[in-house]
């Protein structure tokens, strides 16, 4: 059949793709024609970029905030022919955009919540509003499908598909997911729902499918055997910080002026303290210098920190953004089979919980906690414990989910937005918010999600072009056809070429190709001999991980990295994968960066101290006992171990005498009557015996303030704090 030929099957028009003959439905986006982009030239150094920013030029667009949306906006503006600039107070993607679940997902949960909201009883009296809300949510999901497809097809060097298993342990779920009875039958309908989900992107993703109980046991042996079947669907995945950094560097390739570690400290207005904003005062945090940047239009893209920017603009600005924190933990790779994740659609607090392979480890998240945004990555200890507890639900009893297996943990804040400049009675957006202050003409954008960053950037640039009469200069949006840095010239066989041409290991070659794309060749040219038979070139930064020492030199010379902290957290993801490994190698990173950038001994010492302080905020295998606890504090396997400690004679149950003996050993003062009262609460069957399950139920029901539980918890904490002192802990600490 000829390329582009059509056929009619069952009344549906099919269009055949010229490359792989895969039919797609007519209303799906047709694969675009290849667009040629010139090979990128060497980027200006950070010093040169700062000189451009402070040269006195008036830019058409100035973006404040170097997360995914801000970087996307400056790239969009520059590619339209506008003179664009961006500043970021830290490194690119140092906040929300670098602390996500690493998924490029199209929003299966949003479909479910939209249906649940539509079917609420209260909508009987507001049917038109309910339908309008549903259509708005569904439109957002369609947009996410489109953007997911673009991001994966344009950037195979940064993205991949990941299969996600949803195990079903019963044919009915109660209490139902999303709090609606309709979803109690989810086990019966889920395969059909996932096929519908596939169709929303024109079946451009790998097909969802059912995995039988026996096949699931072979493919995912870590799963609990008590499952009826497993439904599998696909989402996109990426290294979020790398993707965002590549967006910023691509903008620089296109000619935009971009500066990291530059912060806005004031607004410049036409008439002093009044009138439209015509620029900002910026501070270079590396040199300490203050300077002006003039611009015809200014965009705030600060994510959950946008209100802080708006208060510089107007100290009395009404709040527009609330923060919601999410904690993630990273476990050793053996917790999941290579290349397949798991999704719990009905956690104890109603959220989705992902359990995903990532960078050779397993990432678990996320929680949801409202509160003011913070820059610290340090997560609350109670949320780490909650994630461990939820993880156990679907894993085999043969696998002990241990607190000491947490290699790293962090928190990030996502923005929950509303428009303070909207007219009274205007509908609340269920997607991102774009709003312009009529007094200053400054526009801010916030909300949305990682997947739709490009669409958000396009929307906000459309807005400022219209507001500032830039239409004569600006062309149409072109970011939908632009591969990000490293994508021009990328081929899927690059890892093989790197092994053959440079003698690096296969693991390292795969990592370099999926990080730097076509630029991986230039990175390898900096690799030094290992003095080994194999690999011959490429000294690794730390054993067990693919990062090379030459990557540090490359990033310093070509990608504007300037701190040890950023090298360990964002440019490599070592701190996010194994916080203890990152701490151990920080001095070596400081040495390499110092030699490359010409640091003095004092600068090296200062950089190392900053990095060590920041790395100490990450979670790791040893619990942070200073954190406030609100949730379950130990995992079920920990509780089982405590039960075995209490069961002195090993007969499988605790009796009243054993409980009194243990209480005395722990120094808990209580009378026999008080002890019996506690024992009776544990003894569900009233037979004088407390089983392991009875003990677990009691533990989770009494709360952390119970005296006996607190004493047992302290016993557990004391054991956990000993972790890492012996040789047996090294495999846990370094994966």
UniProtKB/TrEMBL annotation:
The keyword Methyltransferase does not apply. Residues 634-669, 670-705 form the EF-hand domain. Pathway: Polyol metabolism; glycerol degradation. One of its GO terms (molecular function) is glycerol-3-phosphate dehydrogenase (quinone) activity. GO terms for cellular component: mitochondrion. It is an enzyme of class 1 (oxidoreductase). Its cofactor is FAD. CDD domains: EFh (cd00051). Keywords: Calcium, FAD, Flavoprotein, Oxidoreductase, Transit peptide. It comes from the Eukaryota. GO terms for biological process: glycerol-3-phosphate metabolic process. Its EC number is 1.1.5.3. SUPFAM superfamilies: EF-hand, FAD-linked reductases, C-terminal domain, FAD/NAD(P)-binding domain. It holds the Pfam family EF-hand_7. InterPro entries: DAO_C, DAO_C_sf, EF-hand-dom_pair, EF_Hand_1_Ca_BS, EF_hand_dom, FAD-dep_OxRdtase, FAD/NAD-bd_sf, G3P_DH_FAD-dep. Belongs to the FAD-dependent glycerol-3-phosphate dehydrogenase family. This is glycerol-3-phosphate dehydrogenase. It comes from Corethron hystrix.
